[in-house]
Amino acid sequence: MSYTVAVERDAPQADRKPIGAGLLHFNTRATGDGGFQTLVVLARAAEGGVVGGAIGEVFWGWLHLQQLWVEESLRSSVAGSALLAAIEAEALRLGCVGAHLDTFSFKARPFYERHAYEVFGSLDGFPAPYTRYFMRKLLVERDATG
């Protein structure tokens, strides 16, 4: 098979789709069906507008928390904690044993640490002069063998 390699900054979704599908197929052959599910938890104002939310994916028994955002006027309230608790509870209901996420030194690391997340890796200078932190939390206790 012959091929060419080229950088395509605006490649259409149809050209991107085979990459994700191929990787998912490869990973599924190695690990089994990951049970991929998207979770969305929303906080809505009385008039219905979204004032916060959490988005994550559940696969291979873990929640990957991709985004958690709360409108600035609610950041000193318990809204962020409520969103985090809700998405973790749904992940637990779906059988997850843990959750993982990434955040930056200029963002929410202390917030997640207050909720029992721990740093398991970091990338200094990303973006400069900050640090990107990779965090995890066990949602269920594991026995000595697990």
Task: Describe the structure in brief.
This protein is an alpha+beta fold and 146 residues long.
Keywords:
146 residues; alpha+beta; Aminopeptidase; six-stranded mixed sheet; 34% strand
Description:
By secondary structure, the protein is of the alpha+beta class. It contains three helices and six strands, in the order αβββαβαββ. The relative contact order is 0.12. The mean pLDDT is 93.
Coarse structural class? alpha+beta
User: Largest sheet, described in full?
Assistant: 6 strands, mixed
Mean pLDDT: 93
β-strand percent reads 25-35%
Q: Could you give the distance between the termini?
A: 44 Å
**Count of the separate structural domains:** 1
CATH class: Alpha Beta
Shape descriptor: globular
Q: How do the strands of the widest beta sheet line up side by side?
A: 1-2-3-4-6-5
Name the CATH homologous superfamily: Gcn5-related N-acetyltransferase (GNAT)
CATH architectural designation: 3-Layer(aba) Sandwich
Give the SSE string.
HEEEHEHEE
Task: Give the low-confidence spans.
Answer: none
CATH topology: Aminopeptidase
Question: Count the strands?
Answer: 6
Rg = 18 Å
What's the helix and strand layout?
Layout: H1 13-31, E1 37-44, E2 50-59, E3 62-70, H2 79-93, E4 98-104, H3 109-114, E5 118-124, E6 131-138
Parallel strand pairs: 3-4
Antiparallel strand pairs: 1-2, 2-3, 4-6, 5-6
